[in-house]
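Students often ask why inverse folding is considered easier than folding. One informal answer: many sequences map to the same fold, so there is more than one right answer. In these notes we will look at a single instance of the problem. The structure comes first.
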């Protein structure tokens, strides 16, 4: 099976700090791939490179027959409609209501009529347990609600790939469980994504495969069950004390 997204031999440095020394992996349609790694290993840099917010020094990122690293800002625009980014803090527009935040990409990038947009916004809010939150401002939402609203906005234009950047960071256990359940429910509908996280239990619940970044490369890739049984010291350093089921 051909991957929907291929990251191939990515190198990236910031000044003298080398972050990536040849990162390669494939993402297949219908799977969620987890990315583990210590702080500073460049997990978020990979996501940002995929949508063109960072440019690798070397290497390729292939999507729909195009090397995304070679595209200019204008050519990346349609790509960002197909590869959506869920930011750590939800990244909602502060001055817009939840309804307006979710409607924004549909108003600007589709031919949908206002009534059709309203229906789609309500459907999406229902999927993330935010029914009735339409007229609230981001400042009126809890942290968990902001993250779920951000997820809804990322999904509303029906992207082919979702990039999750620490989606459970800063959430209490109740809101973490709710967000994880939302993602699992969407996954049953065919969601494809990359799940960058330090939250090992959450990743083991939602991911089909997990890759561990170490010393600038993908050191290990396996299913959650394979990693749980692994005796590799690197794997154990991540899973130890994580209360995995």
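Output (designed amino acids):
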């Amino acid at each position: 099976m051909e991957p929907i997204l291929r990251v191939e031999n990515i190198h990236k440095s910031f000044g003298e700090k080398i972050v990536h020394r040849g990162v390669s992996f494939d993402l297949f349609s219908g799977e969620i791939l987890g990315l583990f790694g210590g702080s500073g290993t460049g997990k978020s840099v990979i996501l940002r490179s995929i949508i063109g917010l960072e440019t690798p020094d070397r290497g390729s990122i292939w999507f729909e027959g195009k090397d995304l690293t070679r595209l200019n800002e204008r050519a990346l625009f349609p790509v960002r409609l197909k590869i959506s980014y869920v930011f750590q803090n939800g990244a909602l527009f502060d001055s817009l209501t939840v309804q307006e935040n979710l409607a924004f990409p549909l108003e600007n990038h589709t031919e949908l009529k206002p009534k059709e947009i309203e229906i789609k916004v309500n459907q999406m809010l229902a999927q993330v347990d935010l029914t009735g939150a339409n007229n609230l401002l981001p400042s009126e939402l809890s942290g968990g609600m902001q993250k779920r609203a951000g997820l809804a906005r990322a999904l509303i234009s029906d992207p082919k790939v979702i990039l999750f950047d620490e989606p459970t960071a800063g959430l209490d256990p109740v809101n973490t469980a709710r967000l994880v359940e939302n993602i699992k429910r969407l996954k049953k509908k065919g969601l494809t994504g990359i799940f960058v996280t330090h939250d090992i239990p959450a990743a083991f619940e939602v991911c089909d495969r997990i890759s561990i970044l170490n010393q600038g490369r993908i050191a290990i890739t396996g299913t959650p069950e394979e990693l749980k049984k692994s005796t590799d010291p690197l794997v154990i350093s991540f899973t130890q004390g994580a209360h995995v089921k």
